[in-house]
Automatic annotation (TrEMBL):
Organism taxonomic ancestry: Bacteria, Pseudomonadati, Pseudomonadota, Alphaproteobacteria, Rhodospirillales
UniProt keyword terms in alphabetical order: Phosphoprotein
Residue positions, PTM 4-aspartylphosphate: 56
Name the record gives this protein: Response regulator receiver domain-containing protein
Tagged with keyword Oxidoreductase: no
Organism: Thalassobaculum litoreum DSM 18839
Domain of life of the organism encoding this protein: Bacteria
Response regulatory domain mapped to chain residues: 6-118
Gene Ontology BP terms: phosphorelay signal transduction system
InterPro entries xref list: Bact_response_regulator (IPR050595), CheY-like_superfamily (IPR011006), Sig_transdc_resp-reg_receiver (IPR001789)
Amino acid sequence: MTTAQTVLIVEDEFLIRLSACETFTEAGFVVLQAESGEQAVEILSDDSQIDVVFTDIRLGGALTGWDVAEEARIKRPDVRVIYASGNAIDPTRNVSGSQFFGKPYDPEVIVDACRRPAAR
């Protein structure tokens, strides 16, 4: 029996976060959620199993999704990172092996991307 993957969803817009959480839960993922970059970094610092970080880039606090991804790679080098944004991507901030999806995105496409092995 395989264990379910755990995804940390980082999204400051409540309804978007709720929708993403429901989609991932229905797809069999264990879901952790953060409404800010600061909260995401706290979660990344604890003992929780996290396989994938799915983060919006523009967040309401001082930290951006870029910052969350960089912290994730420092604290958990093997974590998969997937970004989403309605704005253009900044390729200089991408962590290695990450993926970017523009908003609006198809939630099932994101779920499929999270299931695939990370490219390194």
